[in-house]
Amino acid sequence: MAHAKASADPLADLIACPRCDAVQHVVEPQPGQRALCGRCDHVLIAPRKSAGKQIIAVAVSVLILAVSATSLPFLRISRAGLANASSILDAALAFSSSTLFTLLSLLLAGLIVFIPALRALLSIYVLWPLVRDRAPWPGAIGAFRLSEALRPWSMAEVFAIGCAVALIKVSDLARVEFGPAFWIFAFLVILVPVQDGLTCRQSVWRSLDRSLVHPGRKERRAARDAARAGTPDLPTGRTP
Amino acid sequence: MKSAREMGLVACTRCNRVWEPGIAHCGRCGHKLQSRNPLGLQKVWAWWVLGLICYIPANLDPMLITRTLVSRQDNTIIGGALELGRHGSWGIALVILAASVAIPVAKFSVIAALALGVRHGSRMSAERRQHLHEIVEYIGRWSMIDVFVVAILSSLVQLGAVVAIRPGQASLYFALSVIFTMFSAMAFDSRLIWDAEEGEVPDLAPLPAPSPKDPKEEPAG
Fold first, then answer.
1. For a tag on chain B, would you pick the N or C end, based on fewer CB atoms within 10 A?
2. Plot region of A82 (φ>0 → left; ψ -120 to 50 → alpha; else → beta)
3. Is the interface score ipTM higher than 0.90?
4. Mutate: best of B7, B12, B18, B173, partner A, most A CBs <10 A
5. Quick count: other Cβ atoms within 10 Å of Cβ A21?
6. Mean per-residue pLDDT for B29-43?
7. Interface list for B 92-111 with A (CB within 8 A)
8. Is residue B141 part of a domain?
9. What pLDDT score was predicted for residue A96?
């Protein structure tokens, strides 16, 4: 096909739908529009105008909110002269009474705070140079890959609904007061999905691809793989 | 519309780049390239079974142990929700029942149906089944609500002898069950649905070794 693209590989212009594997030629949509898979309607590309800057702004706020939400008191209850305040970390570490439960505690702390914060950090790391039209920082590809892999494990908003349920359960046991962290966390819960909604993975991958100028680990590995592919005794797609 | 596999190509599921077969890692994002994972369905079933095993004690053991001055109360998931309902909060009881009973049960059945459908064919259209898979992937995390509720309650409600709440065994099993079923849903490769749709027997063998011929023709649009 006659495509006057600078890219050496004719396959570089194709997109395979990750859901149904249909290979297609997708015209890059205008900002605000979406390109859907022709077979299964999965959203392939959804670029937004100056999304990079917006994502960075949101990610910075997520980071600040996450740090302050963890350290400040979250909820406080009182009954019959006794009171107890709890921070989000306290909630996450509530299970640390025995070893097995400690594992669960660490896991919960990760799901609620650390994974959302880490994803915000990774987004900033990946997007900052791209927004400023510089070459990506070393390891940006791995960073974005990790951020994408962690996406389903970021559960701040689920925790928020859990809070609502817990409050109603507690309200007939004792009096509940909201700490500052509660309101901070409420904002956090709104911002985390905003950050995800703004991110168009395809656009990020493409810009990471284009702007890679120095031969990095990626090229070396690709070259090694290509060399390997030439040898006939190696099977395609490693079967463990 | 042809799939990458039918064209003899391999697609990266992470960044959607298409490659000639025989390349082990995506040259753009470094993700492992595999036309189809031959062990994919086995993985789905392995996580599924683990999740189901954990789901049983999650429902039988107490989720929440409430001690007050005069009494000690052990609540299972369903028991706790019904208790809330008896106190008049039927809305919250429904949220808990939906998150801890309806969603997990629906998830187990949908994943099993999808995996069986790939092997034995299904009456449902591929679009419908793929939507189901997307819903299951999206909704899976919401089952964690009850675990979070227990975590908040047991860190917050510590008023000495007056009232104290401790997490029960079931919270651990339930969290594990949710995590295992999330892995199960992730292990399911929705591309298999479409392979079967195109009349191709779900042949999970790796693609044939690359031949040094010219690149395949690209379909337009």
1. C
2. beta
3. no
4. B18
5. 32
6. 83
7. 92, 95-96
8. yes
9. 66
